[in-house]
From TrEMBL:
InterPro entries: Aldolase_TIM (IPR013785), NMO (IPR004136). Pfam families: NMO. This is 2-nitropropane dioxygenase. GO terms for molecular function: dioxygenase activity; nitronate monooxygenase activity. Keywords: Dioxygenase, Flavoprotein, FMN, Oxidoreductase. The keyword Flavoprotein applies. The keyword Kinase does not apply.
Length: 328
């Protein structure tokens, strides 16, 4: 883990997963202050909002933290410039392959670039393009997911790429023993989101947190794509009435595609905006029935609300214990 911690500039190589509306100044600074590595979820923020969020986070921690940017954001270059002005040390690009010029723009600010690699072929392509680190995230994760499980991705990819750059494993990690296992396989660190939603410092609505505490792994289900022409990335969330609302939204957008009232790129962006709004209703307003309660399958291991530092310490204690037992 020292390799990952050195790369991040943190005490331990545990990255906070960037969760829209959740991973803001309070949780991000709490994670970094606890020795982990907080990451701001920019999501659909404007450059002005991101500017204020980074400034507020810097006022709450003097330790490094990252910013997660969505590759399809129409103001991506401006967001990169905002990160550069603030001296953000690490920028995480999510949501697809980096657009032309984005890697160079980030590197020009002096920041490290971290990208998601859902397949070995994409990992190799990203390495050739000059990224500094990769996250391999399996389908057990919350929010937008790929089709392959974390354990399979780790077995397939770590032996091939882990010696070339730091690789962080994400998806379904809820205990330190799992962290130890991935480190043993060559990972430089891990990324966790779901475990940190019920951190005391997290601003998520009390009803949102209670939904996590009550849920089991099987309650976190992936959304269903109803029209093959509309390539909607599945989203894992706790099953509720909001799941049915998303199915209806897909039908509505697909019909407008039929009628040529919207082009494909606009249709996909509309779906993304839908998720952002549905997630906000759940996280901020506490509407856990009609909003989107995005959660990974590790939600069953979230049993109480506690400080971020306590969660990080428990994970590290479990990981150290597992490694000690292997060495004995």
């Amino acid at each position: 883990m020292s390799r990952g911690a050195t790369f991040l500039g943190s005490e331990v190589a545990i990255m906070g997963g960037a969760m829209s509306w959740v991973s803001e100044r309070n949780l991000v600074s709490a994670l970094s202050n606890a020795g982990a590595f907080g990451v701001i979820a920019c999501g659909a923020m404007s450059p002005e909002l991101l500017d204020a969020e980074i400034a507020a986070t810097k006022a709450m921690t003097d330790r490094p933290f990252g910013v997660n940017l969505i590759t399809m954001h129409p103001a991506l270059q401006e967001l990169i410039a905002v990160c550069g002005r603030h001296g953000v040390t690490h920028v995480v690009l999510a949501g697809g392959l980096p657009p032309k010029g984005s890697l160079e723009a980030i590197k020009a600010t002096g920041a490290k670039v971290i990208c998601f690699a859902p397949a070995l072929s994409l990992a190799k392509k990203l390495i050739r393009s000059g990224v500094d680190a990769l996250v391999i995230e399996g389908m057990e994760a919350g929010g937008h997911i790929g089709p392959v499980s974390t354990s399979v991705l780790a077995q397939e990819m770590l032996p091939v790429i882990a010696d070339q750059l730091p690789v962080f494993v994400a998806g379904g990690i809820g205990r330190g023993e799992a962290i130890a296992g991935y480190l043993d396989m060559g990972a430089a660190g891990v990324q966790l989101g779901t475990r940190f939603v019920c951190a005391t410092e997290c601003i998520a609505h009390p009803r949102f947190k209670q939904a996590f505490i009550r849920a089991s792994a099987r309650d976190a289900v992936a959304s269903v794509q109803i029209d093959p022409r509309l390539p909607v990335i599945p989203v894992r969330a706790l099953k509720n009435a909001g799941s049915e609302l998303f199915t209806a939204k897909q039908r509505e957008v697909a019909q407008r595609l039929d009628e040529e009232a919207v082009v494909m790129a606009e249709a996909q962006l509309e779906i993304e905006h839908y998720w952002a709004g549905a997630l906000r209703r759940a996280v901020i307003d506490g509407d856990i029935e009609h909003g989107s309660v995005m959660a990974g399958q590790s939600v069953g291991m979230v049993t109480r609300e506690e400080p971020a530092a306590a969660i990080v310490a428990e994970l590290m204690e479990e990981a150290a214990g597992a490694l000690d037992r292997r060495a004995a």
